[in-house]
Predict the 3D structure of the following.
Amino acid sequence: MSNLDRQAALSVCGGRGFVVAEPVRELLSPRTVRLGESTEVRRLLPNLGRRMVGAWAFVDHYGPDDIADEPGMQVPPHPHMGLQTVSWLHQGEVLHRDSTGSLATIRPRELGLMTSGRAISHSEESPRSHARYLHGAQLWVALPDAHRHADPHFEHHPKLPNVTAPGLTATVILGSLDGATSPGTAYTPIVGADLTLTHGADPRLPLDPDFEYAVLSMSGEVVVDGVPVLPGSMLYLGCGRTELPLRAESDAGLMLLGGEPFEEELIMFWNWIGRSNEDIVQARQDWMEGTRFGEVKGYDGDPLPAPELPPVPLKPRGRVR
């Protein structure tokens, strides 16, 4: 998923300065952003005062949108570096193409995981013949320095492991939860899980006290550790938890995001994560000149131009205690 904002803002991420070492209940409200011609998303990360959760650095929630008579998602070819993209659907389909030659249709509860490494480009679109509704989330995971120059690649995992309890099914998208591990490649201690709750369920989900966590509400009415969380909003939970109490006031869908706090200081600009001003300047030059990021073949349209860089050098000031 791309950040299509033509007035792209610098986000300084990473470091442990804003990591809360004890359990908290910090409700994050979304910012509405237009994505392409017909899709509107609710951006939860980066958020004012909260830039990352573990290695999760970007979270968009969209839908449910009625696209029966619309083209649906139409995101032209655009570049990424220094991160992984996670495509997750509750309804609809997304056709993924990228510069490594990958072509895949992502369907509900299937993992589309793209590791950009040093450079990749991709497009995302609703297939010409598509379901009526589109509902999902797009997320980025920051790559640690040791892996940010890795070879780009794409993974499609239609089958993922589940953890179950009365009234709860947790699908492990990335990392591990309660002994179940996703087949998706992870480069930091991390967890991403899709939680489906039935009306009246009140499970207690086991957590790792060394991780920081957040919960994104996708649908329904749910209370997370005593806090009602409406669809399209996110509750930041801090660290130090061994379990998470949930209560479903209706059938509901959530995403649990967590991981060890990401210590490295980052610069996130447009669709790139780097460590220095030079990283971002070079990425923009390479994209605009048509080098390094490759070509997405088969997409009917032009690639996205990069936004202008800020007039001052970008600095990874980070989160310093």
